[in-house]
Every structure is written in structure tokens, then in C-alpha cells.
Amino acid sequence: MASKLQRLFVKSPMGTGAEIALLPEQAHYLGNVLRLKPGDHVLVFNGADGEWCARLTAIGKKKAQIAVEHQTRPQGQGPDLHYLFAPIKRARLDYMAQKATEMGVSRLQPAITRRTVAERVNTDRLKANAIEAAEQCGILRVPEVCPPEKLSKLLDHWDESRLLIFADEAAAAASPIEALSAQTARPLAVLIGPEGGFDTEERNALMRQPFVLPISLGPRVMRADTASVACLALVNAVLGDWR
Question: Average model confidence (pLDDT) for the chain?
Fold first, then answer.
């Protein structure tokens, strides 16, 4: 029964007996779209306190109140996996944010490269897409969304304990699984470049870093949003929490 309940992300701390006021858009969706009434139940999570079952105590056109009753799942940590990406067109960026969230990433970091076309990024929209994906797919955390930053600056300030895996179109046609399997357990990051690929200087800068691992995604050139899913799936399967 609980799995069929509507899931909502909230920012409030949670515990038995907590009273939480929902956002106007959440109240509208529950009352006007789902037609829920006082006494109906929803599942709520905030990314820190696990998932809880809550009862609607009041609902109107723009206001709703819930009372938290009991925990349904404890908080899980998920993989320590950052996702860096060159921004792309809006509709495909929405898809990318949703799929990366479903893949369990802990941070979304737009990285501006020399061939990046869409340098303006609506971080509020990225966050909304991540929240929606987390609500729908049942995960208990929403990735941190960072403001866009130049790739060169990100590399200059990189924590070298975190392995940066990037999809390299110029990599030798070797097995990405073998390349990943040779790595020891450590914090991870995945980097997907722009539609035109990294320019020569950017690729050379990446290859010079001791914390960078280039991998091939096979013989076919993928769109950035496709490459993101493929690369994150490989990393989760070999080094992440799919093992």
C-alpha cells in the first residue's frame, strides 16, 4: 500500500508528530490533481531523515498541512558520486538531470568548456527536475545542484582523493569495465563533455591530472545525454552501489 502513495520532497526536519506546511504547488497538486482529502496519506522525505508516512490534516487551493506519523524507510547514503557536465539545450538538460538523479549522483555540477553552447544554466530548474525524479523513482536524496563553473577552475581546485572519470572519444578502444575494475574504492566523479567534444588543450589538461581516468564508451559517438546514462551506469555497476 505504502508504495502506491504519492511521494513528496520537503525541506523540514521530520519525526513522529511533526507538523509540516506544504508548498502551494504541492497543495495544488494533491488537492486539485490527485483529489486527496484530509485523512489521506502521503510519503515524505527530506534527504536526511529517511522516508515517512504522513497524514493530510488540511488542504485547500494553495495551502496544505501534514502530520508525520511513522518512518517507512531509514535514510540511505547512496554512492559518493559527483556528475559534471557541459550544459546542453534545455529539454535534453532536463532529461539529463532526471536520469543522473535516478542513477544516484550526489552532486550536479555544470562545467563550462570551450565548446559549450548553452552556457546559461537555470539551477532552479535543474533542482526541480532532480526533485521530481527523486519523488518518482523512490530514492531518498536529492543531489546538490551547484552553479556553473569553468572546467579549468574546477580542475585547479579539485580534491585529488576523488577519481574523475571522463568519457574520452579519443581513448583507445579498450574495455571501460577493465579500466574501471583496476581502480580502488574512493569518492568518484563522472565528466561528460560538450556536443563537439573537448578541444585539444582541454583534453591534454585532463590527461595530465593524476586523478583523471579516461574511458571509452565504445565505437559509436553518443549524444551528451545518452553518454551520461551510459557512463553513470558503467560506474555504478563496477565501482558504485550496483555491485
Answer: 91
